[in-house]
Design brief:
With 547 residues, the protein is α/β, with parallel strands linked by helices. Helix content is 41%, strand content 18%.
Length: 547
């Protein structure tokens, strides 16, 4: 089974949060105040160490406006595959499951409810039915324990017991390593025994060393007396990753999970049941891994046949996963909102465009508060510098400049809307710009003034606009070597300037000229545009829209 939803009310730093999860990889991103530590704390109530946890006073939500005296956390588990609950080890849980009409699968809801009254705190643990009512059964605690033992939540940053760390290979993990080697050899002739041996050294190192708590690493390294993997070993693991991606073999993934489980069992204080499939939490792994090792390691980690919940601030890590697996958590006035595109949020073609244009080329944009969407790369170079000179520091305000001509405007706006990222568009005043303006109007939030999301330049393009608004001498000088009057249409002058220079060089020349003359030289329309984008970015954290 896997955790399909967690619903939190009044727990620690979370007033309210409903988070729908997928069965594979869940990448959670957000700014510092989105409630990461509170969510991780809630999820860890499903760990073997926190069975039947009793709430304390510090567990109830409290901020400058509210002091709650009750808390509810509901965990909904779903079958991972059809008829999973008919398996012998899951069978006792059939008394507390019900059919979910949306998922078309059987689910189990486990609820923790706490109340604070007259200096006394009561905590209840029970199952609920489809209507949210408590299921009255005699063996309630026994079934809760079974559910968690079969699907325990495990944090890979938890401290390990240094006394149980092995100096030599553990026999059970060695067995799975041999099985993995055998299967990879069977499915591919491209690996020599040395390649496999080197790659599997790196597999073990990732699990045993790089993914344990950083406070224990020094102790572990001195006990184990093993060198960290070499470049050749990491390269061999990367080739193994290529094969795993190509094969898509469930049996190999089960063996890979066996390697992980065997090592975890050797280090943990709680023994896993034979059929247990842990749910894994990994907090900000980029703080422990070099970017190259991060990429190699997480390509491997994705192949683990278990649900994974990862919090990160790394654009490198985010770019390793598909769009459906990324969740943007935003703190709003009524609670925390989890934004993501889901399985059917966008068309396949649009997902591919976003994947290439954003995730592969500028993954840092996923973390932005607001996208300032411009037609071409020239505007990206130019407007960033002009904004800085105008006193608008776009980067530090969470505003990302993105050109949209190659990707298309509509997919970018749709994705931004799905992910809770505010957006603002600058278009040219030509026919193409008119179409882009129509797109903005059609996608503008209902009840909002389109002018809060759009600037249309009163010229055919950015060069013509700048020529007409104080920068004509820059283009004349570039094209004709003189700032004197030239008896030619503006388009011809600009075309000549581009021929003799280039758009990027002209953008630099405009910025240099503006810098010499000061912020007053920058057109007021551009300053207003920067201000509008800034306003959206500042409203982003409060999930507020301009009206």
């Amino acid at each position: 089974m896997y955790l399909v939803q967690v619903d939190i009310q009044g727990y620690k730093g979370i007033n309210h949060l409903v988070l729908n999860l997928n069965k594979d990889n869940n990448i959670l991103i957000g700014e510092n105040r989105w409630g990461r530590s509170s969510l991780i704390s809630a999820l860890m109530l499903l760990s073997l160490d926190n069975l039947f946890y009793q709430f304390s006073e510090s567990d109830f939500f409290c901020d400058e406006h509210h002091q709650l005296d009750s808390a509810n956390i509901r965990f909904t588990f779903s079958e991972n595959r059809e008829n999973e609950l008919k398996l012998e080890y899951y069978f006792p849980l059939n008394t507390v499951c019900y059919q979910d009409p949306n998922l078309m699968k059987k689910v189990i809801c486990y609820q923790i409810k706490a109340k604070q009254q007259n200096n006394e705190i009561t905590t209840e643990h029970y199952f609920t039915d489809a209507d949210g009512d408590r299921i009255e059964i005699n063996n309630n605690e026994q079934l809760i324990k079974l559910l968690i033992m079969l699907n325990p939540m495990m944090s890979l940053k938890n401290p390990v017991n240094g006394n149980t760390l092995p100096i030599d290979n553990q026999p059970l993990s060695s067995y799975y390593i041999e099985q993995l080697s055998s299967q990879l050899t069977k499915h591919s002739q491209q690996f020599s025994p040395q390649d496999l041996a080197q790659g599997l050294v790196a597999v073990r190192a990732l699990i045993e060393y790089y993914l344990v708590d950083k406070n224990e690493r020094y102790h572990y390294k001195n006990i184990a007396k093993k060198a960290t993997p070499t470049n050749d070993e990491w390269n061999s693991l990367e080739r193994i990753n290529d094969l795993l991606d190509e094969l898509d073999n469930d049996y190999i993934r089960v063996i890979l999970m066996g390697v992980f489980s065997a090592i975890i069992i050797a280090k943990g204080n709680n023994q896993l049941l034979p059929h247990a499939v842990p749910l894994l939490i990994l907090e900000e792994p980029e703080s422990q891994l070099h970017p190259i090792i991060l990429s190699i390691g997480f390509r491997l980690f994705k192949n683990f046949p278990t649900q994974k919940i990862i919090t990160t601030n790394s654009s490198d890590l985010v770019s390793l996963f598909s769009l459906e697996h990324i969740y943007h958590l935003i703190r709003g006035p009524l609670g925390i909102i989890a934004m993501h595109i889901g399985e059917k949020g966008m068309s396949v073609a649009d997902k591919r465009r976003i994947l290439f244009h954003i995730l592969y080329r500028r993954a840092s944009a996923i973390f932005a508060r607001c996208w300032l969407l411009v037609e071409g790369e020239t505007e990206v170079w130019l407007l960033r510098e002009l904004a800085e000179q105008s006193g608008f520091h776009l980067g530090s305000e969470g505003i990302e400049l993105i050109e949209f001509a190659q990707c298309g405007l509509k997919p970018l706006i749709n994705y931004a809307n799905n992910m809770g990222i505010k957006w603002y568009v600058i278009t040219d005043g030509d026919m193409a710009g008119k179409k882009y303006s129509d797109t903005v109007q059609s996608l503008c939030p209902k009840g909002c003034d389109v002018n809060h999301f759009l600037t249309v330049l009163p010229a055919r393009d950015i060069e013509n606009f700048l020529f007409k608004h104080g920068f004509s001498h820059v283009y004349k000088l570039a094209g004709f070597g003189s700032t004197a009057h030239i008896d030619l249409p503006i388009n011809r002058i600009i075309h000549k300037a581009i021929q003799r220079s280039s758009k990027p060089d002209l953008a630099i020349a405009v910025c240099d000229d503006a810098k010499k003359r000061g912020a007053d030289a920058i057109p007021s329309l551009l300053k207003q545009t920067f201000y509008n984008a800034l306003k959206l970015a500042k409203a982003s954290n409060q999930n507020i829209l301009p009206t």
